[in-house]
Design brief:
By secondary structure, this protein is of the alpha/beta class. The protein is 40% helix and 12% strand. It is built from ten helices and seven strands. α2 packs parallel to α3, α7 runs parallel beside α9 and α8 packs across α9.
């Protein structure tokens, strides 16, 4: 019984208790997700997880588990601006090829089993789609960049995946990777404290214009990932997203605008996914408060 386990755990030191409690919650949640694949009816569920169970039962949480892989779109030489980081013209394959073992037993260097292929090539992506599908991966999450008022590293998605003849086998959605860019990608100077090359935040004019136009072009594709009919858009850096519009109020208007435009295009709206990594408590409260108000 979960409650009895929690009560028993209170006898251990406080610093261990919270870690154990969190682990038990996770195990219980996993158990619930597993039983829903077998039978949702008349299943005994702990009261602590009743809200989660109700969401599963009503379809808010999908019973079928989708397995997604992030796609880092740097493995191509077709992005001219990327040559400042990888001058050989093969994208980050340059860094992979140059990797060396740093200590005895280190698993580097590693070589790609499919070879150093251009991932902006449709034939390469057809091969990768088939391989991913064979291992149960059914969704690709593409990093999507907008630096210096124009797209960056969009070729792997636009020219590779979307032109692959078998892309109907794979769902996809985009994560707006709106973080600041410095020299981290450049192995030659990555250890140096260099200034930002591009800022992750942009200007509202770009968002309401070309950015949303491109988003809607993706959203309306048949294999774009939907959550209850809403196109899923992931935002990597929430604070930069907010800074683009100058505050929470204007950010809420921007979210509502894209949601409205998606509905005009025949969708049920946009499902926004916020990644709040490394954010302090003040930022998290602002984000969660804005979500609740919306």
């Amino acid at each position: 019984n979960f409650n009895r386990m929690v009560l028993a755990a209170r006898k251990i030191p406080r610093r261990y208790f919270y870690a154990l409690k969190a682990a038990l919650y996770c195990l219980t949640t996993i158990f619930i997700l597993q039983i829903t694949r077998i039978n949702l009816k008349n299943t005994p569920v702990d009261r602590l997880n009743q809200r989660l169970y109700n969401k599963i039962k009503t379809g808010v949480i999908m019973q079928k588990i989708d397995v997604a892989a992030y796609i880092w779109t740097s493995y191509t030489g077709k992005e001219p601006r990327a040559k400042m980081f990888w001058p050989d013209g093969i994208g980050e394959w340059q860094t992979v090829k140059a990797a060396e073992a740093k200590f005895e037993g280190h698993l580097w260097p590693r070589k790609p089993l499919l070879g150093y292929k251009d991932e902006a090539d449709p034939e390469t992506m057809e091969e990768q789609i088939d391989l991913a599908e064979s291992y149960g991966v059914n969704t690709f999450i593409y990093d999507w960049y907008w630096f210096d008022r124009r797209p960056f590293l969009e070729q792997c998605l636009d020219e590779g995946f979307l032109r692959a003849k078998n892309n109907f086998k794979m769902k996809f959605y985009i994560m707006w990777a709106n973080h600041d860019a410095d020299s981290t990608w450049d192995k030659r100077i990555s250890d140096e404290n260099t200034p930002f090359i591009w800022l992750g935040k942009t200007v509202p004019e770009d968002y309401y214009g070309e950015i949303c136009r491109r988003f809607l072009g993706y959203f309306t594709r048949e294999n774009y990932y939907k959550v209850n009919g809403e196109a899923l858009l992931s935002i990597y850096n929430v604070q930069n997203f907010i800074d683009t519009f100058g505050g929470i109020t204007e950010t809420k208007k921007a979210i509502e605008y894209l949601d409205t435009e998606a509905k005009k295009a025949g969708l049920k709206g946009v499902h926004f996914q916020a990644i709040v990594y490394g954010a302090n408590e003040k930022i998290r409260r602002r984000v969660y408060s804005a979500v609740r108000r919306s």
